[in-house]
Amino acid sequence: SEKLIEIKDLKVYFPIQGGIFSRTVENVKAVDGVSFYIKKGETLGLVGESGCGKTTVGRSILMLTPPTSGEVLFEGTDLICCNRADLRKLRQNMQIVFQDPNSSLNPRMLVKDIVAEPLIINGMKKGEELDRKVAQLLETVGLNPTHANRYPHEFSGGQRQRIGIARALALNPKFIVLDEPTSSLDVSVQSQILNKLEELQRDLGLTYLFISHNLIVVKYLSDRVAVMYLGKIVESAKTDDLFAEPMHPYTQALLSAIPVPDPSIKTKRIILEGDVPTPINPPKGCRFHTRCRHRMDICDKVEPEFKDIGGEHFVACHLIDKK
Ligand code: SF4
Questions:
Q1: Distance between CA 152 and CA 23 in Å, rounded?
Q2: Ligand 1 neighbourhood includes 249 CB (under 6 angstroms)
Q3: Does the keyword Transport apply (predicted)?
Q4: pLDDT given at position 268
Q5: Which listed residue, of 117, 129, 211, 280, carries a Cα 20 to 30 Å from 27's Cα?
Q6: What is the DSSP string of 8-28?
Q7: Which of 204, 202, 203, 248 is nearest to 225 (CA)?
Q8: How much distance in Å is there from the Cα of 305 to the middle of ligand 1?
């Protein structure tokens, strides 16, 4: 099916001062040449350890963090170089749900005003029609519309995240970035929110970028998964393929760390040696070579290409060329 979102060679660098006495400026290469697409109605899971750049990818697609270079296409239109008026219009189709509803919802605003805000910014007048719309949005996410006159602190964590989702839905978006939407919630509440997100996707035809470090949650919600390491995507595939046959040594290590519910299945945990290197001076060649147990001579010299191995499975590893 059609691509709703396409990212090409996205780079997001943050300049920082070199040392304490240094006047040189260095770049934190948070996202360093990332390309992927998301088809209409699909969920792409974006996984990786904290600091790998996944949240920055999500924010820069929405232009909340300005990209350094690359292309961000929404239905074929590049958001990076389009003018402000066009950007504002296109951005209505793209929303975000943040990780922590406690810090993303203004505690001094009534819930009805939080949900109504995007509508008012886009020209809707206060009045009955707006109230009806807010009530309908609250109902859609499973909240009691008669609670619209309360403040966020009067709700539980899960309910607050529902308020965040209602707000994100206000302008009828086509695409939503879900940035760790359940990781601040209790496990029992997590699945309710995930079910709700799934139901909304089905009913409203939404397309998701689902950012998470939790592979079990990602497996549940995603059609395809992309794995990030140190500012790059190292592997992406259909969810079942990725979990059944991970090809990149980093993906293999990540998956081996998932606890298996059935103790008779013996999977060996792959322990990664060393720390994640700094994104200021990422390792030459394959960025993962400092920690890879399969590394070869070529690995610290030549950067592996992100190769299409068929069936929407892409891998950036020199081992693939040897197969
Ligand atoms: Fe390991 Fe080399 Fe593959 Fe990188 S390219 S993941 S170092 S085998």
A1: 45
A2: yes
A3: yes
A4: 79
A5: 211
A6: EEEEEEEEEE-SSS---EEEE
A7: 248
A8: 11
Per-residue model confidence as pLDDT tens digits over 80-116: 988 889 999 999 999 999 988 777 899 999 999 999 9
Tell me how far the alpha carbon of residue 289 lies from the centroid of ligand 1, in angstroms.
Answer: 6
Q: How far is CA 72 from CA 30, 33, 63, 174, in A?
A: 16, 12, 9, 15
Question: 259: CA distance to ligand 1 center in Å?
Answer: 25
Q: How far is CA 269 from the centre of its chain?
A: 26
Tell me the CA–centroid distance for residue 56 and ligand 1, in Å.
24
Q: What DSSP designation does 284 have?
A: S
- Domains of the chain, start order: 3-93+173-322 (3.40.50.300)
pLDDT digits (tens, 9 = 90+) for 172-229: 999 999 999 998 888 889 999 999 999 999 999 999 999 999 999 999 999 999 999 9
Which residue among 299, 303, 315, 321 is best mutated to probe the pocket of ligand 1, counting the most ligand atoms within 8 A of its Cβ?
299
- Residue 90, CB half-sphere, CA atoms under 13 Å: how many? 21
d(CA 112, CA 148): 5
Q: Measured from the CB, is residue 89 less than 6 Å from ligand 1?
A: no
What ipTM score was computed for the predicted complex, to two decimals?
A: 0.99
Handedness of CA 21, 275, 233, 217 (dihedral sign): negative
Query: Which amino acid does the sequence have at 109?
Result: M
